[in-house]
Amino acid sequence: MLNDELNAFVIGEKNIYINSGLIQNASSIEEIQGVLAHELGHLFLGHIQSRKTYNNRNSSNLAIAFFTLLGASLASNSDLTGLILVGQDLRLKNKFKYNRSQEMEADIFAIKSLNNLNINTIGLTTFFNKIDKKQKLLMNNVSSYYISHPSPGNRLEMINDLSKPNANKISNRIDFGNFNIQLDQIKIKINAFSKNKKNLIHKKYNNDFLKIYQNLAINYLNGNLNKALINIQTIKKEEKLNPFIFELSANINLQMNKTDKAIQNYGKAIKLLEKSDIKSNSLIKLSLVKALIKKDDKKSLDEAFKVLEEIIPFEGQTTILWRLIAKTAGKLNKISIAYIALAEEQVIKNNLKKAKQYALLGLKDKKLDLAYRIRGEDILNLKN
Questions:
Q1: DSSP assignment of 110-168
Q2: Cα(48)–Cα(53) distance, integer angstroms
Q3: Are 259 and 371 found together in one domain?
Q4: Do both 105 and 236 map to the same domain?
Q5: pLDDT tens digits, residue range 113-134?
Q6: Which of 50, 315, 317, 330 lies 20 to 30 Å (CA to CA) from residue 69?
Q7: Residue 18: what are its φ and ψ, rounded to 5°?
Q8: What is the pLDDT of residue 193?
Q9: Is 382 exposed, middle or buried, given 0-12, 13-18 or 19+ CB atoms closer than 10 A?
């Protein structure tokens, strides 16, 4: 997520978001791993669901308290505003106390997980030291009672107590066996993606790979796509097994309307990911689909549809997947499947009325594939 804050957070019951500011300010890979381990703790310990229950319960309690206070105010001519503020004050104190307990539990989960994986907990220590300095600057006059997280000092003390002696040094790269990704490489890519040219040209690198990668990003931002491709060709000679270099090459080729080259490079990237036993390749597959749709011939569209169906189990909760299925199915004259895909998209958008309308249109086709018929019928049975 493009945001300068040093933060990561969980949304829903399985999605972790990392602010770009956290990565840009990270001193090591272990620092990012430590924060991710903490957020995973919230998921594994069921905190998200319990917070929903807590918030719903206390929302009702606050409503009851409000009417009670209103009655007291009318009976005694007391200051209603003051009473309401006291009620809110007590609610906030309880809420933050509740949140701090869960944060401590997630910290313990993170430390134990890092210990088990033999990953140095110094990353967590470094992160909380940064948070400590920032908090002292911004919150000198704010009562610690109203901070939803434990104090960095307490967290640092717990890390020291629970961490096992670890001989591993911190690193600035992720090793995938056949290739590695440097932390500075990720930072360069973020700067290019966010079009932050100032940050991009500010840093000087001694590493030859990073120099070329930096030039690649600068050329891309300046619109010199041919020069950017030359940079990529140079990098490919040394990074023949790095799938993300081929993905980047594909992205630029697609932007230059070199569709066949883009498809070729996306395909290579996916094969390299599979060879390295990296399962998370759905995003690259979606990019491949967009290139295949852009080519717009029967063979390419059939391939796009096949790829989309392969990743339904992994991306079935994203609107972009169902939108692409609807688009591809429409081009292949599979109109009933397109309607079911549009229905699935509307379910994700919480528009059940429209979802059921699309589902009914799709189910009119008596020859509709069984998998899509089941999806359509399930949508009709959803409660408004």
A1: HHHHHHHTT--THHHHHHHHHHHHHHHHH-TTS-GGG-SS--HHHHHHHHHHHPPP--P
A2: 9
A3: yes
A4: no
A5: 888 888 888 888 888 888 777 7
A6: 50
A7: -115, 125
A8: 84
A9: exposed
For residues 259 and 261, give the distance between their C-alpha atoms in angstroms, rounded to a whole number: 5
Question: Taking 60 as the threshold, does the pLDDT of residue 317 lie above it?
Answer: yes
**Rounded CA gap, 36 and 113, in Å?**
11
| 0.85 exceeded by pTM | no
The amino acid at residue 266 is: Y
Structural contact between residues 325 and 337, judged by C-beta atoms closer than 8 angstroms: yes
* Whether residue 155 sits in one domain with residue 23: yes
pLDDT at 192 over 50: yes
* Count of domains forming the chain: 2
- Do 322 and 367 share a structural domain? yes
Q: Based on the domain organization, do 151 and 181 belong to the same domain?
A: no
Per-position DSSP letters for 268-288, written without gaps between them: HHHHHHHHTT----HHHHHHH
Q: Which one-letter DSSP state was computed for residue 207?
A: S
Is 168 a member of any domain? Answer: no
For residues 118 and 54, membership in a common domain is answered with: yes
Residue 22 belongs to domain spanning: 8-162
Residue 331: how many other CB atoms lie within 10 Å = 16
Which pair of structure tokens corresponds to residue 37?
A: 């381990």
DSSP, res 26: -
**Would 169 be classed as within a structural domain?**
no
Answer with the one of 132, 162, 192 that is the final residue of a domain. 162
